[in-house]
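Below is how a single chain appears once it has passed through the pipeline. First comes the sequence as given, then the structure the pipeline wrote out for it. We keep one example in the README because the format questions we get most often are answered faster by looking than by reading.
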Amino acid sequence: MTLLIDQATAVRVCAIQDLEVERGRAALLGLDQIALFLLRDGNVHAVSNFDPYSGAHVISRGIVGTRGDVPTIASPMHKQVFDLRTGECLESQGKTPVHLAVWPVRRVGDDLYLQAPFTAPSEEG
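Resulting structure:
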């Protein structure tokens, strides 16, 4: 099967070999910091690296796990748990649930692409 990538809306972010199983990696695309996760089953997920509860860009340093058959990431700061597929907050530690942004990941050969939109840097700097 061949997966077609729309070059106008997808950006190559890395090779699959650049990721370690169940260890996060951060990527900067435009102004967006994205956390990438390669799971044991070979699926790759991309979510915002911004932890909405601590205000720090640390999600890529979180703890990968599961809730039933749902792949999750727990924030390394205050341990809120998010669904890696949807960004939904599954455990907010008593705070108002906030979702993480999610980007579709496409694999073409050994290359991983993320679909836009990304936040572009401003011209003002």
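The chain has no helices and eleven strands.

See the next section for the split statistics.
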